[in-house]
Amino acid sequence: MGNGQHKPSSSLPQVLMLGLDGAGKTTILHKLKEENDNKTTSTVGFNVETINKETGKQSKTFPFTLWDLGGLGGEKSIRHLWEHHLTSREYHGIIYVVDCSDRKRLFEAKQELFTRVLEKPQTKGLPLVVIANKQDLTDALSGDKLAHDLGLTRHLDHPWHVVEVSAKSGQGLSEALDRIYSLIRKPACGPTSQFYP
Ligand code: G3D
Ligand code: MG
Questions:
Q1: What is d(CA 149, CA 159) in angstroms, rounded to the nearest whole number?
Q2: CA–CA gap between residue 116 and residue 183 (Å, rounded)
Q3: DSSP states of 82-129 as a string?
Q4: Are 183 and 127 in contact (CB under 8 A)?
Q5: Phi and psi dihedrals of 82, rounded to 5?
Q6: Are 75 and 113 in contact (CB under 8 A)?
Q7: HEC letters along 127-162
Q8: 102 Cβ contact partners less than 8 Å away, ≥ 6 residues apart
Q9: What interhelical angle do 25-36 and 173-185 show, nearest 10?
Q10: pLDDT tens figures, 10-29
Q11: Does residue 27 line the site of ligand 1, with CB under 6 A?
Q12: What is the pLDDT at residue 68?
């Protein structure tokens, strides 16, 4: 996959961002790009950013590569490609974006998260951050309610965290990055991460 312009360094963790169409993935990527003043690289079908996040407490940079299947979106007809991408590249974390104002599609979001992502052998044990997006809208579901409704509060074989975000204003995005950073850096079990020693 790709046009050869982009060869991400394997020393950076690769984070794949998924979610239904309209969840806010591309908005998140654009917001992070504004805030980080990062170099954008395009590959066929992907929006890719190398995010250099300054972690406040330790003043350490937190570089990782964030992949949004941007050109493809999350439309139903192409969601089978999620599995293809999960197989074709090694990812170290998943960000799953949910539109918390769209209750009608919550069940669909849950189903796709489990059947196309979490139940696949390629994602076994991978850290998961769920972005409870569109918190600026008054009827948005809270992060706690989302965690419950998605079924994350049952035993889940993934370290996970839900973060309330408004991609529109950027609120919460920094926390979402902190969470994926922490989960990748310190896996709940197994050997210490190869990243950020
Ligand atoms: P996708 O990449 O996941 O398919 P987009 O989703 O990033 O294209 O966002 C879909 C729509 O949701 C866009 O509206 C975008 O502006 C809006 N959106 C994304 N995040 C937020 C948010 O936090 N709050 C609000 N209120 N809207 C958000 P349009 O109208 O451009 O289709
Ligand atoms: Mg998009």
A1: 17
A2: 21
A3: HHHHHHHS--SEEEEEEETT-GGGHHHHHHHIIIIIITSGGGTT--EE
A4: yes
A5: -55, -45
A6: no
A7: CEEEEEECCCCCCCCCHHHHHHHHCCCCCCCCCEEE
A8: 22
A9: 90
A10: 567 888 889 998 999 889 88
A11: yes
A12: 72
Considering only CA atoms, which of 193, 97, 110, 192 is closest in space to residue 149?
A: 110
Question: Tokens standing for 193?
Answer: 């991460």
Closest ligand to the CA of 98: 1
Burial (CB count within 10 angstroms: exposed 0-12, middle 13-18, buried 19+), residue 190? exposed
- Taking the C-alpha atoms of residue 26 and residue 23, their distance in angstroms, rounded to an integer, is 9
Residue 194 CA to ligand 2 centre (angstroms): 30
pLDDT in tens, 95-127: 999 999 999 999 999 999 999 999 999 899 999
pTM reported for the whole predicted model:
0.85
3-state helix, strand and coil shares in percent for the chain, rounded to the nearest 5: 30, 25, 45
Are 70 and 23 a contacting pair, CB within 8 Å?
Answer: no
Q: Are 96 and 188 in contact (CB under 8 A)?
A: no
Which amino acid, 147?
A
DSSP secondary structure string for all residues of 49-70: EEEEEEETTTTEEEEEEEEE-T
Q: Which two tokens stand for residue 49?
A: 């950013």
Q: Which two tokens stand for residue 150?
A: 């998605």
Nearest atom within ligand 1 for CA of residue 97: 3
Query: Is the shortest distance between the CB of 47 and ligand 1 below 6 Å?
Result: no
- Find, among 156, 115, 149, the residue nearest to 132 by Cα: 149
